[in-house]
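hiii so um. not sure if this is the right channel but i have a protein structure encoded as tokens and i wanna go backwards to a sequence. like what aa goes where. can anyone help
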């Protein structure tokens, strides 16, 4: 197997069959999942900072326009926005 190819790892895969890269990837994925799960659980205990706030009518209108544009396929790509803002230089 080439060094840049990822091995398909199954529950039956033996640890001795893994490369250091495979093991690092597995540990990274497991750590990321554990952190995500923990943050998801913690979020239930945190207050919603926007709970007592209302959307401004102008902002609600912008959201509706965004959704309409998205539904019509009229969204700009990141490259288009970057060029328009002059950030691509």
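sure thing!! here u go:
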């Amino acid at each position: 197997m080439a060094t840049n190819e990822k091995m398909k790892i199954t529950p039956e895969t033996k640890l001795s069959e893994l490369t250091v890269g495979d093991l690092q990837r597995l540990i990274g994925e497991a750590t990321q999942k554990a952190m995500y799960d923990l943050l998801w659980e913690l979020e239930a205990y945190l207050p919603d900072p926007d709970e007592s706030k209302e959307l401004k009518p102008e902002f609600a209108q912008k959201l509706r326009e965004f959704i309409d544009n998205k539904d019509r396929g009229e969204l700009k790509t990141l490259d288009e926005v970057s060029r328009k803002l002059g950030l691509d230089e």
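oh and Residues 20-43 form the longest helix (24 residues).
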